[in-house]
Amino acid sequence: MKQYIALTGKMKFNTALHIGSGKAGETTDAPLRRDARGRVVLPGTAIAGALRATATRLAPRIDFHNGQRAICLALTEKNEDEACHCQVCHLFGDLNPGVNEKGIPDKAKLTHASRLWVYDAILSAEKAGALVRDGVGIDRQSGASASAGAAKFDLEVLPAGTSFELRLELQDSSDEDEWLLAATLAEWQAERGRLGGRTARGLGAFKLEDLKCTEIDLENDILTFLKSEKPWQHGKADDEWLEDNLDEAIDHIQQIPAANNDNVNASVAQSWVTVSFDLQFKGPFLIHDATLAGLIGYDHAPLLQQLPPANRNEKWLAQSVLSGAGLRGVLRSHAERIARTLATYAVWEKEKDAGKLEEVFRTICPACNPVQSKDDRDHPLANCDTLLKQTDAATNKAFLSTHEEASDKHLCLACWLFGSTRRGSRLAIQDAGMIWENKEKRLPYKPQDFLAIDRFTGGGLDGAKFDALGLFAPRFRVCMHLENPADWELGWLTLVLRDLRDELVTFGFGAAKGYGLAKAEEFKVKLGFITPEDVPVKEEKLRDKLLANAPLAEKSLFRILELSQDDYESYKDILQEWVGKFNEQVTLFNRENMELPSPASDTYFTGQLPKLYPLDPLSVKEEVAA
Description:
Blueprint: E1 3-13, H1 44-58, H2 73-76, H3 87-92, E2 116-118, E3 122-123, E4 131-136, E5 152-157, E6 163-171, H4 175-189, E7 193-194, E8 205-217, H5 222-227, E9 236-237, H6 241-251, H7 262-267, E10 271-281, E11 284-285, H8 290-296, E12 321-322, H9 324-351, H10 357-364, H11 384-388, E13 391-392, E14 397-398, H12 413-418, E15 427-429, E16 432-434, E17 445-453, E18 460-472, E19 475-483, H13 487-501, E20 518-529, H14 540-548, E21 552-555, E22 558-564, H15 568-588, H16 609-612, H17 617-625
Antiparallel strand pairs: 1-6, 1-8, 2-6, 3-6, 4-5, 7-8, 8-9, 10-19, 10-20, 11-18, 12-16, 13-14, 15-19, 16-19, 17-18, 20-22, 21-22
Helix pairs in contact: 1-4, 4-6, 9-10, 9-13, 13-15, 14-15
């Protein structure tokens, strides 16, 4: 080892964080991970895993010119006997040992341990007030909580604003190792880092701050290294380490799309899209937090980023948060409704005279019910995982065993985009913080009492009184991030966001009571790409038009194209292309071609299909009149 390099910084979490212990506790289904002294721990294994995942996606886009594999075997082949020797494995250590045909270690295939040491991260503050969050699945037919699917859960989280001290050490590293690590850390500096559990549902988003590099030349100054218990504090500072190595990585960028392999293309970094907007509620809004309700004496109280202080005033409610899980559930449910509606139109046009509407719809339905774990006539549209566990009559085996990974052909379109129990999602929706400027000098909340009416007497029903402390006309800032988006996925999200803009979606508690109606405003879009060919626009003229109408800026390995709502006319044609690709994808979807079993039945068809989804409004009026 000739040189010692230490990197230190601060990981500041913009949203709540959950690092689970893997075991249920007495007070919550998923407690935080703690050491023997009860202190919250952010283990080095979790940090190293997040680093390696990002580096694995970036490495194939950097041409290292050293004869190593461009793409890690972990993304392509599951050969446990073959050492990979890609650049990622050179930095983080090989996953598999090199052995010969007899299973004996082969000197020609010997592997190497990690050259990067990642230490447990320590809380910047001595105390961090953990709190418990509740979650529940949404029934796709009723819109209420999916109690039949046992979709209620809770977990312990650290609040937004929590910081951890990060320390990394490089030993016996090459220039290429430093390029890759710099490119990875640049992503974290650009606030595209996520760590811990439920990152796709709003948790674990952070930014790397105050990154510092110190180096010790062990050939000429080894005594400094040996005498110090904390050598990272006594080395020579290199303030330009990240910038210099990132510039080297950018200079070596090559144009991949890797070998027409869909699985590899989905894993290798190509592009990303971040959409941010303000969600303005028109009246009262509430996402219930049982912990706060118990503290302040209301039956229903809003979810906060952290528990209120002992001496509280109205300002503590300005820390209210719209959880990413709550946003994601509503948006997925609405996206499924759009997809099923388009599939319904397709079925009606093809089969309206054949009498096979329900049978055909079950085959081409593009969205399962993710909270439904039964598959029978009383439980239609079971989730993809339940269907894959079924036994194939031809082979007498499950369609996909529990230890096998699900590919695109095993999932419906909704699970493809939003994720399932078999595969995570590339779409992450962060917790949305409340914007409260108080220009009108009003309180941010509105207490309200509720009382059920006795259907016989017309008076109040005994024991049916409850109250709620709702937020009044709050405004939240929402951020969505999608990795390697396909054009049809962007078209689907475009339709969902259009309905948000048109006030067609409600959130949270009491939609039937006037709560939760919101409008999306102030849209801003960032499109990151490495080369122009990575932009998810198939038509070359539209792609050139998009790139010509917005400034480009280099940040990390990606070039960033920024668009606002005012630029709508410039990219309207591109949105229409994306929506058209989504319509085409829904039309082409077929469960038989996708190797996915059909659900047992479907209740979206109730004999009223022409009236629910009219193709000819005049003919429907005549049928209703008759």
